[in-house]
Amino acid sequence: MAADRPAILFVCLGNICRSPLAEGAFRARATAAGLDLRIDSAGTGDWHVGRPPDPRAQAIAKANGVDIGALRARQVHADDFTRFSHIFAADHTNLRDLRRLSPDPSRAELALVLDLVAGRQGEAVADPYYGDAADFARSWADVDAAAQALVARLQRLP
Ligand code: 4NP
User: Fold this and answer.
1) Hey, what domains does the chain have and what are their CATH numbers?
2) How many Å lie between the centroid of ligand 1 and the Cα of residue 130?
């Protein structure tokens, strides 16, 4: 962990499905745990900038008690690599793109979202965009498992 206060960014391709789900799940878990952190999400692509999360993502979050309807998609910026201590990518393509965009030196540590979950290191959160409600439910389960693990990790910090 960086010596200063952790700040967490979740990144996927469009910032309308997986990363807003991760942002919503983690914000809910962090708030419940009394953690006060900078939390955000962004996409490597710009196709959906300014749009709210996909209605199917909003629906699965809402079914789990989390309202992500006010989020708006944005693209990753160069200053994200200094504003955030940890950037978690949904899949390997997102991680590769982040490594390419990252200035040198960068404050942020880069990893996959599922690297946070015991036994799932190296796995991707599958892109649900061309899938159905079951795929969105799987994405939620993945990012919420990561959110729980990240809260537990941050609570162990001095
Ligand atoms: P996300 O899902 O990266 O989880 O937000 C996608 C959203 C849009 C597209 C692909 C994936 N797209 O091709 O427009």
Assistant:
1) 7-155 (3.40.50.2300)
2) 8
